[in-house]
């Protein structure tokens, strides 16, 4: 067993069994009606999941591993992201997401209603509250968030738990898990913190790698055109501002879509925001 440090010394250092990673088979539990028993995650199991996270190369792979880790706690969804600035557009808000396994319909409503600036969990992460369940006084006491949290229940996010984590930059990262009913012991919360910190680190590294590879693909003019499109400019307006033809703008946008592997312009903008190519 050896220790590898992946981030500043103030972050946890993880111990990984490289040669003998083993999955611990949890014992069977009798589950009584109305009183579910959620099994604990042992430290050895947690180390196994850390090794799995290290092997991930995409955000989608990270989300699948984290979901499998938190399922015994009753969680069915996870969302991880840095905090957007006040006044950020919908596209910019989406660009702050690092790991996304949230209900699609809820995400659509959440961003269309601009709930990010009313969400009490976002407020508390900004303030640096270390961790909290969504039913604690700090959350329910914020009136602005009552509607947000109430609507979240309609999408299977009845109970949740959020941690505030450091990032490689000045902003905090919010790590949230949710489901119909959560059960987290102090030991499980401690082990979850290890997984959460490492998942955030891997997500940031994956984004950095993608950003570097994409920067080499997009030209300065393509990034400029995509930035203006993200700010709401129409193609004809962009052409007028840059002093080039509509046909040239169409060509730049088509090139951006192809290089980013996107379905349409909105998807290209979302991917560019997520990769940090535009702001």
From TrEMBL:
Gene Ontology MF annotations: DNA binding
Superkingdom: Bacteria
SMART domains associated with the record: HTH_LUXR
Keywords per UniProt: DNA-binding, Transcription, Transcription regulation
Entry's Gene Ontology BP terms: regulation of DNA-templated transcription
CDD domains reported in the protein's UniProt record: LuxR_C_like
InterPro entries documented for this protein: Sig_transdc_resp-reg_C-effctor, TF_LuxR_autoind-bd_dom, TF_LuxR_autoind-bd_dom_sf, Tscrpt_reg_LuxR_C, WH-like_DNA-bd_sf
Gene3D superfamilies per UniProt: Transcription factor LuxR-like, autoinducer-binding domain (3.30.450.80), Winged helix-like DNA-binding domain superfamily/Winged helix DNA-binding domain (1.10.10.10)
Ranges for domain HTH luxR-type: 211-276
Keyword Transport on entry: no
Protein name (Swiss-Prot/TrEMBL): HTH luxR-type domain-containing protein
Protein source organism: Rhizobium tropici
């Amino acid at each position: 067993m050896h220790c590898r440090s992946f981030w500043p010394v103030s972050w946890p250092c993880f111990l990984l069994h490289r040669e003998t990673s083993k999955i611990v088979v949890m014992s069977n539990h009798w589950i009584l009606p109305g009183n579910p028993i959620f099994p604990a995650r042992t430290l050895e199991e947690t180390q196994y999941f850390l090794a799995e996270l290290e092997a991930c190369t995409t955000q989608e792979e990270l989300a699948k591993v984290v979901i499998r880790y938190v399922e015994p706690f009753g969680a069915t969804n996870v969302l991880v992201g840095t905090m957007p600035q006040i006044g950020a557009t919908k596209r910019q808000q989406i660009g702050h997401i690092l790991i996304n396994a949230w209900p699609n319909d809820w995400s659509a409503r959440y961003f269309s209603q601009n709930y990010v600036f009313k969400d009490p969990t976002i407020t508390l992460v900004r303030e640096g509250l270390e961790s909290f369940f969504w039913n604690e006084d700090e959350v329910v006491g914020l009136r602005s968030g009552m509607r947000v949290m109430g609507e979240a229940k309609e999408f299977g996010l009845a109970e949740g738990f959020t941690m505030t984590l450091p990032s490689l930059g000045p902003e905090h990262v919010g790590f949230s898990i949710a489901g119909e009913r959560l059960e987290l012991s102090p030991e499980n919360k401690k082990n979850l913190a290890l997984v959460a910190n490492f998942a955030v680190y891997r997500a940031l590294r994956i984004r950095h790698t993608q950003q570097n590879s994409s920067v080499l693909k997009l030209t300065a003019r393509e990034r400029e055109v995509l930035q203006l499109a993200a700010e709401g400019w129409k193609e004809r307006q962009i052409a007028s501002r840059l002093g080039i033809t509509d046909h040239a703008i169409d060509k730049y946008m088509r090139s951006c879509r192809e290089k980013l592997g996107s379905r349409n312009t909105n998807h290209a903008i979302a991917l560019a925001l997520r990769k940090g190519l535009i702001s």
